[in-house]
Design brief:
Layout lengths: L2 H8 L1 H5 L14 E4 L3 E2 L11 H14 L5 E5 L5 E5 L1 H10 L3 E6 L4 H15 L4 H15 L3 H8 L3 H9 L5 H8 L5 H7 L5 H14 L3 H12 L12 H14 L3 E6 L2 E6 L4 H11 L1
Parallel strand pairs: 2-4, 3-5
Antiparallel strand pairs: 1-5, 3-4, 6-7
Helix pairs in contact: 3-4, 5-6, 6-8, 7-8, 10-12, 11-12
């Protein structure tokens, strides 16, 4: 992640949704609302809430209360709609609270959805599939590009592209990633396998046999090259993503060659001055 991206994430929602945006007005003072007057947002990008984690948060809330207010906006029919903080609201219900602290903001539907994504990304609350769907919705429903999504979220464009590619996986495989049976890295590796039936079969094997991401890549590569035995094996999305990150970090073209966990990293330079600069970074 670039320095600018880190700074954007560090500023929180205020930094990501600047006051220059017509959809946003300054934050009001924190207040409270009856818990039954606060309603979940049907456009919430997060759909999976772990019961054990909710119980743990509820226990903490019973002990010390809700330490961070829930971000809401007014509903046309009365009450409030959650923009960010649904997990805290759910846990507060479990804890038996009658009122919850809230901060009310006037946000358009687009700005509310964007704020919900940013809050979840900052907290790393979205699983890989939820994040991919959220990014795709910003593109489809709100006319963002991958570049503008990356800028707003504080990630590299390649990370957004790789995330969205997970939506090409068969739905059952996406569900395995959502419930934690497979990682995002497994999903990227499985995309190399080709057809949906092959991907689904390999996904089940990966779960049953406890394959690592590296082993999943090897199996997916083998499956994809059965009908094409000649020619170099395609690079996995994980290796391509590593090349992008290394190239950006070093400020030079970097290529990674990998086969069964062994390989080579090539760093290209075009002058002795550039070589000196690279050596300063590496040594």
């Amino acid at each position: 992640m670039s320095v600018d991206s880190k700074k954007r994430l560090g500023r929180g929602l205020e930094g990501m949704l600047p006051s220059g945006n017509k959809a946003v007005v300054p934050v009001r003072e924190a207040t409270s609302a009856a818990i039954e007057d606060v309603h979940p947002n049907r456009d919430q990008p997060r759909s999976h809430f772990d019961d054990t984690a909710l119980d743990e948060l509820a226990a903490s809330i019973r002990a010390v209360g809700v330490l961070e207010p829930i971000l809401v906006r007014k509903r046309p029919g009365g009450g409030f709609e959650i923009v960010a903080g649904e997990r805290r609201w759910r846990a507060s219900q479990r804890a038996g609270l009658r009122d919850v602290p809230i901060v009310v903001r006037e946000l358009s539907t687009e700005a509310a959805f964007e704020a919900a994504i940013i809050e979840n990304v900052q907290r790393e609350d979205l699983n890989a599939i939820e994040a991919a769907r959220a990014y795709q919705r910003l593109i489809d429903d709100h006319k963002y590009t991958q570049e503008s999504v990356a800028e707003r979220i504080g990630k590299d464009r390649s990370s957004i592209a790789n995330s969205i590619r997970l939506l090409k996986l068969p739905r059952p495989v996406q569900e395995h990633i959502e419930n934690g049976a497979l990682s995002e890295g497994h999903g990227r590796a499985l995309l190399m396998a080709g057809g949906a039936s092959t991907i689904s079969k390999l996904a089940l094997e990966a779960i049953e046999k406890g394959w690592s991401v590296r082993e999943t890549e090897r199996q997916a590569r083998a499956a994809s090259t059965k009908s094409k035995p000649e020619g170099p094996a395609p690079k996995s999305a994980n290796i391509k993503d590593l090349e992008v990150k290394l190239s950006r970090s070093l400020g030079a073209r970097v290529t990674v060659s990998d086969e069964d966990g062994k390989g080579r990293i090539d760093i290209r330079y075009t002058s002795l001055d550039e070589l000196d600069r690279l050596l300063t970074k590496l040594l």
